[in-house]
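pls design
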């Protein structure tokens, strides 16, 4: 039973004429010790159970499990795909080992399962092939994938792609080229197969054919995880073709470095740029927008110090597009504000974001920058400044999804300062102005506690009943 259900049940059992003194004993004595715990500045206690945080924790756990179980070189195989194929016995033990990242033990158990208990041999072979890829035994994985092409017709494109990948890793280039060219039509593996086809042509030094493959892939790879890889591969091919424009090669390399500066594609792009610079060629100057995109990519990867350096470099280059500078500074400042060690640095970044966003007329990033600055100031003990920024968010951005959050956080700060009357007024305004906001339930919860703490049991019960209907 949820805590507010329990509170409402207790309120309903108190006689109408009972005073507050009657609540000093029994279960109410335990409950009265906690009503203002959430209002002493802890936003975590203010959220009711069953909030978004539990789903986020489950998603983070799933992502962590997937990242642990994807062996090096095993491609884009998710460990969650193992579940339908393996359940118990040796296969189940192999699945558990694979989920822990122990690919050696998983391969040994799967080979034993195939030899001793071949009830569903294709299922074990499917996972064993991916495990062998992770162990670098690409020839054995290729044999399994080629066998499975007839066993799983619904997974034909996926199995063909991984067979081509295994063949390429096993230095069977012509076989990999033939298999990769068979993956066609809509699907998540088609673009990957085209990239692999380009790699097979590139390994044969057929630079022009590979460049045509990569060029055709660029329009459909915008915003995709493999965009940086495609641009890098195309630049590598064009740099080998005589007479090609150096400006286009450097533009592709700058873009690849901006999209994935922390990954291998960005490192290879920077290495090729350095080799071009050593050949005494005068490279075109990198644009400010490219450096800002690099800062955003580093911020997304939580590389906050390199992201801040890229932002400073972009500002030193001269006038940058205000809209791009606004977005980059807002993204970096919001992430800095969440980390205690970068919180003071976030104030400067968010001030830059507020100035540029206001000059560019971009209201949505401006509201985010003000809200993040208010939270950072409140966390640093600058309560007055935090309250002023929260009030400005609610006043100047009433249609933003952060307006009710700003009101709620202002109330929490006021509760922590002991100004309960002002805090109650803000929560009442939250109920009136944002009846469909995501902070409505939390506001009802705090007001119900306040009413209960003051002895207004009917009012507390009314507020709690309203929260149940949300």
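designed seq:
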């Amino acid at each position: 039973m949820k805590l507010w259900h329990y509170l409402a049940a207790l309120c309903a059992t108190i006689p109408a004429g009972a005073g507050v003194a009657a609540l000093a004993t029994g279960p109410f004595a335990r409950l009265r010790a906690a009503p203002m715990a959430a209002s002493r500045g802890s936003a975590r206690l203010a959220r009711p159970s069953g909030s978004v945080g539990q789903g986020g924790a489950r998603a983070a756990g799933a992502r962590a499990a997937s990242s642990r179980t994807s062996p090096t070189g095993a491609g884009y195989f998710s460990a969650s795909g193992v579940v339908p194929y393996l359940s118990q016995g040796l296969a189940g033990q192999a699945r558990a080992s694979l989920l822990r990242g122990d690919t050696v033990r998983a391969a040994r158990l799967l080979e034993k399962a195939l030899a001793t208990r071949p009830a569903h041999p294709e299922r074990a072979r499917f996972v064993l092939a991916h495990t062998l890829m992770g162990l670098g035994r690409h020839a054995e994985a290729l044999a399994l994938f080629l066998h499975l092409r007839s066993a799983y017709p619904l997974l034909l494109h996926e199995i063909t792609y991984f067979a081509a990948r295994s063949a390429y890793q096993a230095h069977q280039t012509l076989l990999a080229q033939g298999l990769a060219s068979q993956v066609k039509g809509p699907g998540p593996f088609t673009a990957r197969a085209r990239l692999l086809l380009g790699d097979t042509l590139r390994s044969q030094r057929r630079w022009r054919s590979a460049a045509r493959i990569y060029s055709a892939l660029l329009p459909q790879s915008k915003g995709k995880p493999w965009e940086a890889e495609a641009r890098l591969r195309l630049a590598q091919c064009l740099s080998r073709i005589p007479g090609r424009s150096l400006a286009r090669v450097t533009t592709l390399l700058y873009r690849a470095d901006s999209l994935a500066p922390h990954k291998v594609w960005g490192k290879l792009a920077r290495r090729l740029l350095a080799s071009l610079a050593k050949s005494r060629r005068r490279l075109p100057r990198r644009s400010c927008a490219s450096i800002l995109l690099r800062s955003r990519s580093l911020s997304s990867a939580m590389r906050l110090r390199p992201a801040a350096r890229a932002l400073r470099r972009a500002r030193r280059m001269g006038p940058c597009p205000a809209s791009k500078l606004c977005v980059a500074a807002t993204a970096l400042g919001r992430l800095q504000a969440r980390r205690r060690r970068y919180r003071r640095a976030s104030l400067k970044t968010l001030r830059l974001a507020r100035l540029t966003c206001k000059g560019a007329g971009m209201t949505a990033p401006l509201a985010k920058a003000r809200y993040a600055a208010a939270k950072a100031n409140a966390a640093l003990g600058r309560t007055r400044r935090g309250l002023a920024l929260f009030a400005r968010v609610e006043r100047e951005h009433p249609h933003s999804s952060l307006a009710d959050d700003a009101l709620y956080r202002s109330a929490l700060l006021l509760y922590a300062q002991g100004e309960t009357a002002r805090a109650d007024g803000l929560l009442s305004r939250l109920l009136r102005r944002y009846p469909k906001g995501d902070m409505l339930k939390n506001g009802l919860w705090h007001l119900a506690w306040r009413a209960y703490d003051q002895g207004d049991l009917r009012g507390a019960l009314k507020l709690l009943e309203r929260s149940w209907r949300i």
